[in-house]
Amino acid sequence: MPHLLILAQPVPPRALEALGAPVEQRTIETPYGQAGPFARRQQHDGLGVWILPYFGGPSRTDPRATIWAAKSLGVQRIIAWDSVVGLDADLGRGDIILPSDYIDWTKHQPSTFFESTGAGYIQQNPPFCTDITKALSHHLPAARPTVYLGGEGPRRETAAEVHMFRLWGAQVRGLNLVPEVYLAKELELCFAAIGVVTALGADRAETQPGGEVREADQTILRALPAIFAGLPAPLRCGCDHLQAGPRQRGILTEDWRTWG
Ligand SMILES: [Zn+2]
Q1: What integer is the mean pLDDT of 141-147?
Q2: Which among 66, 75, 71, 10 is positioned nearest to 47, based on CA atoms?
Q3: Which residues sit opposite 21 in a β-bridge?
Q4: What is the CATH number of domain 3-259?
Q5: From residue 69, how far is each of 13, 60, 61, 222 by CA, in Å?
Q6: Which of 23, 115, 206, 240 is spaced 20 to 30 A from 214 at the CA atom?
Q7: β strands within 21-164, DSSP E
Q8: Is the pLDDT score of 220 beyond 60?
């Protein structure tokens, strides 16, 4: 089964060569609109990785289309690579973060696949796939576990909002992981993320860029092939088993069959 890398941090295609040569490109029709193009890269001995360039904002692809398309491509494991605003005073440009939990500060409506069934009481603990998170922290030991606040943008946060978000326990803010993280759960997919701090919260003056973001990008790019290759098979995380109450179990699978 190929993996999927959702790429919300712009890196040149050349930098992705370590994940293999490009072999295929697909755009996927879903009940929520079109998603893609997804480009698959393949190493001769590897499973292959689909790569989807991704940018947040209210006019972006319906996140449900993204996750639905991933499912229909046969993907089980998704790593999302986001660029984030550092809300914590300790976080500087170029710091690598590993989201360990999230706060949903988006207004996407509806943001569930269970619209027609009324189900969807999916447990969110653990919020991110444990298999992938373990692999990310193993291969990127400097990545700091953080609470991620998912916003919508495109506007930046105000200084007052930064104070509020910090009181809530949020350490970074980004636009590309929520609602994707819980939509993936609804389709029984693994989802975890990595982030690079590319800007500071509105209550702090920006520091002069000195190549630290590019350095962080290179660190992640070097680690990605080993991260994908080292994911345990079969899954230990249990993400492929819907974490809903017994009455909800299987409902989505039925929806899925109807669509197929
Ligand atoms: Zn998982």
Answers
A1: 98
A2: 75
A3: 42
A4: 3.40.50.1580
A5: 22, 15, 11, 27
A6: 23
A7: 21-30, 33-42, 49-53, 77-86, 96-104, 144-150
A8: yes
Distance CA 65, CA 71 (A): 10
Chain-centre distance of CA 180, in angstroms?
7
What is the distance of C-alpha 219 from the center of its chain?
Answer: 18
Q: How far is the CA of 195 from the centre of ligand 1 (A)?
A: 18
| Cα 112 to averaged position of ligand 1 atoms, centre (Å) | 19
Residue 131 C-alpha to ligand 1 middle, in angstroms? Answer: 5
Output the six-digit token pair for 225. 């092939």
Distance 190 CA to ligand 1 centre (A): 4
Give me ligand 1 centre to Cα 78, in Å: 9
CA of residue 189 to ligand 1 center, whole Å? 7
CA of 211 relative to ligand 1 center, distance in Å? 33
- Whether the per-residue pLDDT at 116 is higher than 90: the answer is no
Structure tokens at 140: 């990127």
Give the distance (Å) from ligand 1 centre to CA of residue 205: 38
Kindly list the domain boundaries of the chain, sorted by start residue: 3-259
pLDDT of residue 241: 80
pLDDT band at 98 (very low <50, low <70, confident <90, very high): very high
Amino acid present at 27: T
Residue 206 has pLDDT above 60, yes or no: yes
Task: Decide: 2 and 47 in contact? Cβ < 8 Å.
Answer: yes
Distance (angstroms) between ligand 1 centre and the Cα of 35 equals: 22
Question: Cα(55)–Cα(93) distance, rounded to whole angstroms?
Answer: 19
| Residue 72 near residue 38, CB atoms below 8 Å | no
Name the helix (H) or strand (E) containing 174: strand 172-174
